[in-house]
């Protein structure tokens, strides 16, 4: 029954480009899909492993930059006498490079998370993202700084919107299945146990470092994949991909949808991906739109602290 | 040598305001354990109140400064009463999410009210700088420095040597015992948040006329305040004061001798390094409130 419903939803989603007609709406759906992938990756860390990472956009941005740079090729002075030269690689290989680069950053942050928790971890993760943004702005030789990286080749030569839509959908489905398999495995149960009661989990022999690092690496690599998709779809990357507001958007998506549920980030992602377009259609100014976001976030924390998906599930019962 | 002296003087002037921002946050984040994302917005609020009072209604500069600080205290009290009073005992993540929501709403409300264009605020000080041998400093910076030091000292006295300060420390050390001793703990929460917010507004009201005021000016200020608090150790006013000056010196010398593009990165790098190697801050022996 549940599998059948999932298949029907997937079939409907897959046929969207044929009946939607409006190319702008399709564009909105593609970008929303990319953010849903990022939100799913954040959910692994925030919902399952219980680590509030407010620097998640760093992984997204590192994935975007690493992938864009590898596909464009670059040469950069490591020391005055030494030049690191990389020729342009095919876009799919570049995306892999983006995923690996983001995963490495995740490993680093995961090691830190082992030492510091709670508010300290939040501040370190924000600081990490801000340092990444400042490096992207100032290391002009590599990143072109605010001039941005332009003319990034698309993945698999996909210039058209429907092709990109299916690509994003496919990656989202893969990410969803990966997370589903991971959280129902032994490693996933260990993460959930850590989030719920670390002292108890440790006492029954769960290796804290190992599972926190695993969670951050997988989460970061997935966010990196979303960043790479973004870079090759919009085909321009500037330091603004590191903006704190994007992290906040992802957090709102996860919290509203329901952290620690598989469907939560998808539901929250679709709502907050499409809501701005609805508000724009209602001719509301962007500042007012963000005020609505902020107030909604406060209201969700007060009235739906578990998020929409768990609330619906309780209603169904 | 002259250049180094000038850098040090600039850092000293800057450090006063960083310390002011830091002690406001160390009360809220360090003692109340609220990761206060609205701190930067109170800073921007202070600057815009100066703009409104001095430039739009023509109030005297010094009167406007006092009013801006009082308005900051009131806004802080309102925020605490509306948003946080029903979250007593909630975990730190929950209050943090509420504060992020409030931060987004406040910043965009500022943008809606004042547009995104940066505004200048007139100040009554002579334009010619104060020249001391090889170095010089603008008169308005000297004024900012003096007021900042006075406010820091007043806050220190308030926390450590008054009945209200003792009630604050008692409340955040052990809420239940404090309540049993007759402390009105809800009022103390509101008062502490209002005091921290007032100090942030004071920093904004002081620095707005030195630089310019714009809606997102609070983001960087808040980031620096967090750096100062972490440097000094949570909840320590002397620590935050020292942290403010350290951050200013690191930034000023780093910008002068390493790279000015990475000026704002110094604070973040300091945060990461400090938390990795000395998580309780440079000065605190241990966290005061666990």
Number of helices of chain A: 14
What is the number of beta strands of chain B?
2
Q: Helical region count of chain B?
A: 11
Strand order within the widest beta sheet of chain B: 1-2
Mean of residue pLDDT of chain A?
80
Beta-strand proportion of chain A? under 5%
Q: What share of residues of chain A is helical?
A: over 70%
* Biggest pleated sheet of chain A: 2 strands, antiparallel
Provide an overview of this structure:
The complex is a heterodimer of chains A (317) and B (290). Chain A is 75% helix and 3% strand. With 317 residues, chain A is mainly alpha-helical. Chain A has a domain at 23-242. Chain A has a two-stranded antiparallel ribbon. In chain A, helix 1 runs antiparallel to helix 7 (161-183) and helix 2 (23-48) packs antiparallel against helix 12. Chain A is globular. Chain B is mainly alpha-helical. Chain B is built from eleven helices and two strands. Chain B has helices spanning 2-31, 39-56, 61-84, 92-114, 139-161, 163-173, 175-180, 185-207, 217-232, 237-257, 263-277; strands at 130-132, 135-137. Chain B has a two-stranded antiparallel ribbon with strand order 1-2. In chain B, strand 1 (130-132) and strand 2 (135-137) form a beta hairpin. In chain B, helix 1 packs across helix 9 (217-232), helix 2 (39-56) packs antiparallel against helix 3 and helix 2 crosses helix 8 (185-207). The N and C termini of chain B lie far apart (45 Å). The mean pLDDT of chain B is 83.
Question: What are the key terms here?
Answer:
heterodimer; A: 317 residues; mainly alpha; two-stranded antiparallel ribbon; 14 helices; B: 290 residues; ABC transporter involved in vitamin B12 uptake, BtuC; two-stranded antiparallel sheet
């Amino acid at each position: 029954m549940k599998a059948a419903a999932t298949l029907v939803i997937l079939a409907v989603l897959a046929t969207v480009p044929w009946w939607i007609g409006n190319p702008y709406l399709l564009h909105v759906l593609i970008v929303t899909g990319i953010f849903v992938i990022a939100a799913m990756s954040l959910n692994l860390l925030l919902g399952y492993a219980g680590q509030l990472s407010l620097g998640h956009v760093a992984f997204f941005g590192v994935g975007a930059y690493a992938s864009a740079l590898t596909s464009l090729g670059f040469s950069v002075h490591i020391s005055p006498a030494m030049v690191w030269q990389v020729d342009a690689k095919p876009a799919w290989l570049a995306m892999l490079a983006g995923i690996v680069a983001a995963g490495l950053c995740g490993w680093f942050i995961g090691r830190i998370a082992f030492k510091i928790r709670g508010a300290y971890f939040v501040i370190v993760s924000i600081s990490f993202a801000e340092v990444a943004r400042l490096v992207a702005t100032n290391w002009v030789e590599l990143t072109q700084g605010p001039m941005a990286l332009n003319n990034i080749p698309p993945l698999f030569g996909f210039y058209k919107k429907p092709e990109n839509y299916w690509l994003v959908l496919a990656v989202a489905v893969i990410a969803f299945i990966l997370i589903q398999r991971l959280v129902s495995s032994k490693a996933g149960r260990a993460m959930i146990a850590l989030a719920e009661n670390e002292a108890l989990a440790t006492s029954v022999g769960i290796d804290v470092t190992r599972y926190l690092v695993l969670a951050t690496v997988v989460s970061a690599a997935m966010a990196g994949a979303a960043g790479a998709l973004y870079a090759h779809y919009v085909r321009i990357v500037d330091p603004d991909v590191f903006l704190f507001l994007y992290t906040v958007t992802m957090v709102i998506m996860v919290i509203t949808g329901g952290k620690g549920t598989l469907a939560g980030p998808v539901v929250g992602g679709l709502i907050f991906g499409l809501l701005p377009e609805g508000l724009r259609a209602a001719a509301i100014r962007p500042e007012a739109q963000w005020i609505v976001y902020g107030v909604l976030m406060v209201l969700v924390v007060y009235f739906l602290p578990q998020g929409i998906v768990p609330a619906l599930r309780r209603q169904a019962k | 040598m002259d250049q180094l002296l000038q850098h040090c003087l600039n850092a000293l002037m800057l450090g006063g305001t960083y310390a002011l921002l830091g002690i406001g946050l160390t009360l809220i984040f360090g003692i109340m354990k609220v990761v206060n994302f609205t701190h930067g917005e109170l800073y921007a609020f202070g600057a815009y109140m100066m703009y409104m009072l001095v430039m739009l209604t023509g109030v005297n500069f010094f009167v406007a400064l006092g009013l801006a600080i009082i308005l900051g205290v009131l806004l802080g009290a309102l925020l605490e009463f509306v948003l946080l009073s029903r979250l007593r005992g909630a975990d730190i993540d929950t209050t943090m999410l509420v504060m992020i929501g409030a931060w987004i709403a406040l910043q965009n409300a500022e943008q809606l009210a004042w547009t995104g264009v940066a505004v200048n605020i007139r100040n009554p000080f002579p334009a010619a700088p104060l020249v001391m041998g090889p170095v010089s400093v603008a008169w308005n910076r000297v004024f900012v420095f003096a007021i900042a030091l006075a406010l820091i000292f007043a806050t220190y006295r308030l926390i450590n040597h008054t009945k209200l300060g003792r009630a604050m420390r008692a409340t955040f050390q052990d809420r239940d015992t404090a309540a049993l001793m007759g402390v009105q703990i809800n009022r103390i929460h509101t008062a502490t948040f209002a005091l921290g917010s007032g100090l942030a507004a004071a920093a904004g009201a002081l620095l707005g006329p030195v630089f310019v005021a714009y809606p997102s000016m609070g983001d960087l200020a808040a980031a620096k305040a967090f750096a100062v608090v972490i440097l000094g150790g949570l909840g320590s006013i002397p620590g935050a004061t020292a942290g403010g000056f350290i951050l200013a010196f690191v930034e000023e010398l780093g910008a002068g001798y390493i790279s000015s593009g990475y000026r704002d990165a110094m604070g973040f790098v300091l945060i990461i390094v400090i938390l990795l190697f000395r998580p309780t801050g440079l000065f605190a022996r241990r966290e005061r409130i666990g």
